[in-house]
Amino acid sequence: MQATIVQAVNDALHGEMERDDRVVVFGEDVAESGGVFRATDDLLEEFGSDRVVDTPLSEIAIVGGATGMAMYGYRPVAEIQFSGFLPPAFDQLVTNASRIRWRTRGELTAPMVVRTPYGAGVRALEHHSESLEGAYAHIPGLKVVVPSTPADTKGLLTASIRDPDPVLFMEPKRIYRSVREEIPEGDHEVPLGEAAVRREGADVTVVGWGAMMPPTLEAVDDSDVDAEVIDLRTISPMDTETVAESVKKTGRCVVVHEGPRTLGVGSELVARINDEALMYLEAPIERVAGFDTQVPLLSMEDFYLPHPPRIRDGIERALSD
């Protein structure tokens, strides 16, 4: 069926709740209202108030509750309305959920998913537009997933719910409804930790994820460059092999992300490429990223986000050396 990303989230949740009665969904306004972006529409009517629960406005309680339920044997899927509200629960992710397997030497695990819309581009207010996937990728034991297409959204969320360890599932709200494609009916799982080659090419490797994939593909399609485009899909664990093999073929690389440039995921990618493919590089790796500032309000976001002209400039710089 044809679906948007937000519809794919809903479809994956329906499928996993039907398949496994341990899967429970909870968060702020997810039941009666169907979520602030309507990602959980109709779940309450189908599965009832024991499995779809509105919570108080406490991110600490939501993530802490999910951790306890996961350790007890449930498969909780907790929603945080905006990723900018997740920092209060950072301690629960770092201190409890991500390290319970290590702390108990494997006797306990926390098979849980924290879903959250993230990123800029929808003219939202402060705390609604951050792109902080790099901060969470730094936590050992926590997987970080960022889909960019509806089909991948369904498959990656399904895999995340089935994963034995905690997963932070970051949904790029900028493209929640602007991208539509056919998604598989029924069971569909995309393995975590595997990047996707969205476009094959020989001149330069361009790597991105989430909401940066549409402008990246647009930039490449509007140029004469034979670029290979890679969608990471999973930030942690990161598929270094796919990126490195592409760079070995092209000899050049551009990394695109909307988070701040300093200590962003792009920095880690550059380091890994230097580790695995340094002798194949014909030019320095370029980064096209957000700026080291707070995300500006309203229309000023257009100057902050990487857009096709900026991405094309980065590609040209990579090819000019």
Automatic annotation (TrEMBL):
Annotated GO biological process = organic acid metabolic process; sulfur compound biosynthetic process
Instruction: Report the coiled-coil segments.
Output: none
Q: What is its EC number?
A: 1.2.4.-
The region annotated as signal peptide is none
Q: Which CDD domains match?
A: TPP_PYR_E1-PDHc-beta_like
Pfam assignment, any one: Transket_pyr
Query: Which UniProt keyword terms apply here?
Result: Oxidoreductase, Thiamine pyrophosphate
Record-annotated Transketolase-like pyrimidine-binding domain positions: 3-178
Q: Which cofactor does it need?
A: thiamine diphosphate
| GO MF entries | oxidoreductase activity
EC primary class: oxidoreductase
Q: What is this protein called?
A: Alpha-ketoacid dehydrogenase subunit beta
